[in-house]
Design goal:
Blueprint lengths: L1 E3 L10 H4 L41 E3 L6 E9 L14 E7 L7 E5 L7 E8 L2 E7 L4 E2 L6 E6 L5 E2 L2 E5 L5 E7 L6 E3 L6 E7 L7 E14 L4 E2 H6 L2 E5 L10 E4 L4 E3 L5 E4 L14 E11 L2
Antiparallel strand pairs: 1-15, 2-13, 3-12, 3-14, 4-12, 5-11, 6-7, 6-9, 8-20, 9-19, 10-16, 14-21, 15-21, 17-18, 17-20
Length: 297
């Protein structure tokens, strides 16, 4: 069954798997064509779609989406190789890509790190350890111990995997966040987003600016089950001096290293997973393109 892959932060992978922080891109002035260099608006008319109504002082009135178009969306452009901007609460996310995207993008498959049931213990040395339970997204290590032991317990030989598109390192993610309110509603454009926006194959109607002439959407096939032992054996763990996994990690613990001794452990987390090296077979994919048109640009 084919399914559309939503945003990296709405992916089946946890935020630990992605382990990437980013800032929403500011509103783009002008547009991006296929090469990302800018474009103008096309022909047609939206018949006052997205205009400010008399009773809509602080936002825009979402009128009927023109025929042959899909909307309404709030749109934000991210950075190349970074996770897509997070959609506002209450909106449904769709991710497309600009820039250099392969004609046949591939999809990586990976289990969730929770599949591996990692437990951690700390203490003054490797001979004196106290079990602290299952490792959450980020675990503070009490009393800045000098030793930490990480163990992975795999309960099943196979685990279900989630597919994540690999559009290429130069691809720029674009979040299309479908508004929960549609026709005849007064809506406020979220900070850092453009809108109201719509997608289609035709030129942009009058009053709308072309943000992208060919934004690529990637659909991934379902993943085959992963070999849980192989996946869990590839996990690594980052250790930090801070108590909340902030700052730069000062060390990496491999899944098979068991106990290590070093001063200054403040917190530990599962390291970001390299989607190109998960140990799970990749899945097939298909892609399509669409034009993104936003009011005002």
């Amino acid at each position: 069954m084919i399914r559309r892959i939503a945003a990296l932060v709405g992916l089946a992978l946890s935020s630990v798997v992605l382990a990437g922080c980013f800032e929403n891109a500011p509103m783009v002035v002008g547009g991006l064509d296929d090469s990302g260099t800018g474009s103008g608006s096309g022909s047609g008319s939206a018949s006052d779609s997205g205009s400010t109504g008399a009773g809509c002082v602080d936002g825009v009135t979402l009128s009927q989406v023109p025929l042959a178009y899909d909307g309404w969306f709030w749109v934000a452009v991210g950075g190349a190789g970074a996770p897509p901007p997070v959609c506002p609460e209450g909106t449904a996310a769709e991710v497309r890509f600009l820039g250099t995207v392969p004609e046949d993008p591939s999809c990586a498959c990976a289990c969730e790190a929770a599949t591996c049931a990692t437990t951690y213990s700390t203490g003054p040395d490797c001979d004196t350890l106290t079990m602290l339970g299952e490792l959450p997204e980020c675990a503070a290590t009490p009393q800045m111990p000098a030793a930490i032991d990480l163990q992975t317990h795999v309960s099943a030989r196979e685990c279900d995997a989630a597919a994540t598109p690999l559009p290429g390192p130069d691809a720029v993610p674009v979040s299309l966040c479908r508004s929960a309110v549609q026709e005849d509603a007064c809506a406020t454009v979220p900070e850092g987003f453009m809108g109201p926006c719509m997608t289609g194959d035709l030129g942009c109607p009058e009053g709308f600016t072309e943000i992208a002439a060919a934004a690529v959407g990637v659909e991934c096939n379902d993943c085959d089950p992963c070999n849980a032992d192989m996946f869990c054996g590839r996990l690594g763990f980052e250790v930090f001096a801070s108590a909340d996994c902030s700052g730069q990690p000062f060390g990496m613990v491999g899944g098979g290293d068991n106990c290590i001794e070093q001063q200054g452990f403040g917190s530990v987390r599962v390291a970001p997973i390299d989607l190109l090296d998960t140990g799970c077979p990749a899945s097939g994919s298909s892609s399509d393109t669409a034009r993104i048109c936003c009011m005002g640009g």
